[in-house]
Amino acid sequence: MQADLICVGNELLTGLVENSNAGFLARRLCSVGIPVSEISVVADDEKVIRAALGKALKACDLVILTGGLGPTDDDITREAVAAILGLPLVLNRKWLEKMEQFFCKRGLKMPKNNRKQALVIEGSTILENKRGTAPGSMIEHEGSLIVLLPGPPHELQMMFDEQVLPYLVGHNRGNLTTVKTLKCIGLGESMLEEKIKSAGEWDLPQISYVARGFEVDLQIKGCGDPASASAALADAEKRLRSALGTYIFGSDDQTLAGTVAEILIAGKLTLGLAESCSGGLLSDIITDIPGSSKFYRGGVVVYNPDAKVEVLGLSRSLLNHEGEVSDAVARAMAEGARSLFRADLGVGITGIAGPDSDLSGSPVGLVYVAVSSPDLCDSMELNFGGGRRAVKERSAQIALDMIRKIVLTGN
Amino acid sequence: MQADLICVGNELLTGLVENSNAGFLARRLCSVGIPVSEISVVADDEKVIRAALGKALKACDLVILTGGLGPTDDDITREAVAAILGLPLVLNRKWLEKMEQFFCKRGLKMPKNNRKQALVIEGSTILENKRGTAPGSMIEHEGSLIVLLPGPPHELQMMFDEQVLPYLVGHNRGNLTTVKTLKCIGLGESMLEEKIKSAGEWDLPQISYVARGFEVDLQIKGCGDPASASAALADAEKRLRSALGTYIFGSDDQTLAGTVAEILIAGKLTLGLAESCSGGLLSDIITDIPGSSKFYRGGVVVYNPDAKVEVLGLSRSLLNHEGEVSDAVARAMAEGARSLFRADLGVGITGIAGPDSDLSGSPVGLVYVAVSSPDLCDSMELNFGGGRRAVKERSAQIALDMIRKIVLTGN
Fold it and tell me: What residues pair up with A62 in beta bridges, in sequence order?
């Protein structure tokens, strides 16, 4: 099975809206073994949508269209698909009632143009939309499956995960066991490859490496029929885990911060942060995790020497002697955060994010990260390339990995 | 002039890498009045690239290809373009020497496969790459312009802005004066439209509205020849500014945080933050601005009641009486941040980001934001829909807008 994606919307062609739907759908389809052969972004223009769909139906057995299901005149995806299939649009009374209730609950009368959203292609299956008024739909056509999804990402994602993906897997059009992503940190792509190759002679599955800062996604694919693909994948995962050990921090949808959160919650450990050059990014990443208040007690962003002394309690002579960007200050910040927030673990991050150096002339990209626990205080000196944002992101990644290692191994 | 974009890369079709190049190029082309008619994402497959390019050349007079210019075997964009134009690839000795120096400087010998990157299509103009080894190129072909750009965004962006955009404008293929984006906050799309329409009878230019949380981008386009388009645009901007006043916070590439930074620096004012439900995101946004240390003294993320009392100095009875998520606590946090960091302005943000409520049973999405100055303390109660991230982002946007208004108007 091969898929084509057609993303409809003028706002995608002007770049006013980022097309996050294409990446989301590609990842989801890939995870069930359905490769995407092409993605097209086209205008809200019936002729253009029809041409793209005609081309896709010749090449693929699954075509997903996103966007153009709204109530306004420029929303014409439904009409274009109906026209190319030679099918009429029919009014779905149930959906009409649902929309009327949707507006009624909010104390509003349904605008006339929303009625259009209850028109569905004859013979199609409606996909429920819990987050908006545009229903999605699926229709089988000469051996191909055509899926229409609304453009807003939070509507599309829920609809795809809850209704389309189970349909694909249930109808043997996808296979949940053929792709696995192992998420690594601490070694670059080439070092990982070397380590895997030197771990012994065995049939390697197909591995793709994708680096994101210090993290590397290692995607492995099983081939052949579902049962043997699944067995090969399980075997490969076992061997890779034994070769790479704690360089693997998670799999599939897991994130580094999510893994750290799980470890801290499991160990009943609390965390406090003191950030300088990372500017609050680490705190932001941690608080994106639902339930992070279970372990995260708080953080300070001490963006100048006074705040380091007055808020975090560092001694001014330490700052003067060692310099704000130094191993000793990172350690003192980690200890300070631990004590200020009465937490089990404290993190200190100090460095030069750029674009300019500080008064001391330390190079842009020089960063010290320290993690303190009741038993020890560990630290690292790093030299990052890249811009201001990259320095912030990598500092946060390193800090999370250091927390992970300290909790897992005690050092 | 019409443009087509062809983004080459298997990693884009698996969703392992987000295709940020398409949006970037679309915005840039749109800003010089060149509409993008279609974006295709295709595999690293010569036949597929040739088919996409053939189709694009029939429809458009500007075709930009991204990706596939690397040194490895799967990088074949150059080869595919040369084949369809019927032109040979020739070795560019200057680029070869440049690459050899690039590796030499890093104490490395140039790998053999990098030699491929010095092969250029006969008759094409090389585009310098200051950030990598893949040169870009431009070639005129039967009235159309074909541009090849490397895939890594930081290489592509610099190359496009410094070399391609000036070429397009210089050769009258684009016009810098035909599009302007005014950035608004404080009114939704429909309210903005109403205000604009009620501001008097005048020929409105074409206006597109795009909402990003509480911000709305208002894009206006001038039509006709460059001189009259430019005049119409200037006139429209003047009228819109007079109709919308301080609801407009900036234009084009300006950001809300960037505008706030300018205002604070100009007024020699400093800022301290106390965040709870926004979890450090506001601090992260502010510290993304180069030079933010000029006005930003620091922030605390007080993620539990103890931290609010012990770090920020709130009274425990206030928390017990009013509840952690309350107007009074937001105000006390703003005052506390101002005093803790000895800043001119303090911000307090407290709320329920979800997915679950707190023990008090306050609804998810309820947020209080307060800004305190030496003269006054202003606050707002907000009820946000959307998920955890949306609550964080909108809280940060509102706080920035409140700072902006307090400094601009004194209330």
Answer: A3, A145
Q: Are residues B162 and B63 in the same domain?
A: yes
Three-state secondary structure call for residue B261 = helix
A296 to chain B, minimum CA–CA distance in Å? 7
- Asked if pLDDT for residue B190 goes beyond 80, the answer is no
**Average of per-residue pLDDT across A276-303:** 97
- pLDDT category of residue B113 using cuts at 50, 70 and 90: confident
User: Is residue A141 located within the same domain as residue A190?
Assistant: no
Q: What percent of chain A has pLDDT over 70?
A: 97
Sheet containing A144-149, strands listed edge to edge, beginning at the edge strand earlier in sequence: A125-127, A136-141, A144-149, A62-66, A3-8, A36-42, B36-42, B3-8, B62-66, B144-149, B136-141, B125-127
Distance from CA of A235 to the nearest CA of B (A): 23
The CATH number covering residue A242 comes to 3.30.70.2860
What is the structure's pLDDT at A277? Answer: 96
Per-residue confidence (pLDDT) for residue B282, from 0 to 100:
98
Min Cα–Cα distance to chain B from A217, Å: 9
What 8-state DSSP symbol labels residue B52?
H
Interface confidence: ipTM more than 0.95:
no
List the CATH number of the domain containing A154.
Answer: 3.40.980.10
From residue A107, give the alpha-carbon distance in Å to each of A100, A101, A110, A248: 11, 10, 10, 52
Give the structural domain span for A113.
3-170
Q: Which residues of A touch B297 (CB under 8 A)?
A: 303-304, 306-307
Q: Which of A45, A284, A339 to mutate to test the interface with B (most CBs of B within 10 A)?
A: A284
Confidence of residue B281 (pLDDT cuts 50, 70, 90): very high
**Which residues in B lie closer than 8 A to residue A41 (C-beta atoms)?**
22, 38-40
Q: In this structure, are A404 and A335 located in the same domain?
A: yes
Overall number of domains in chain A: 3
Contact B302 A298 (CB under 8 A): yes
Question: Distance between CA A351 and CA A28 in Å, rounded?
Answer: 38
Edge-to-edge order in the sheet of strand B248-251:
B206-212, B215-221, B179-185, B248-251
With CB atoms and an 8 Å threshold, state whether B40 touches A39.
yes
Q: Give the tokens for residue B368.
A: 């209080």
- pLDDT of residue A207 exceeding 70: yes
Same domain? For B209 and B94 the reply is no
pLDDT reading at B132 higher than 60: yes
CA angle B89, B91, B96 (to 5 degrees): 140
* B195 vs B224, more confident: B195
pLDDT digits 0-9 by tens, A363-373: 899 999 999 99
Are A156 and A192 found together in one domain? no
Q: A310, B340: Cβ pair inside 8 Å?
A: yes
Note whether B156 and B219 are same-domain residues.
no
* Residues A288 and A390 grouped into a single domain: yes
State the Cα–Cα distance between residues A406 and B15, nearest whole angstrom.
Answer: 33
How far is residue B364 from each of residues A271, A293, B106, measured CA to CA in Å? 24, 15, 53
Short-list A210, A251, A212, A185, CA closest to A405? A185
Which residues neighbour A178 within 8 Å (Cβ) at sequence distance 6 or greater? A32, A33, A221, A222, A223, A226, A229, A230, A233
Residues A92, A212 within the same domain: no
pLDDT at residue A177, rounded to an integer: 64
* Main-chain dihedrals φ then ψ at residue B409, nearest 5 degrees: -115, -10
Across the interface, whether the CB atoms of B39 and A387 are under 8 A apart is answered: no
**Type and span of the H or E element at B126:** strand B125-127
Lowest mean pLDDT among A168-177, B3-12, B81-90: A168-177
Reported pTM: 0.82
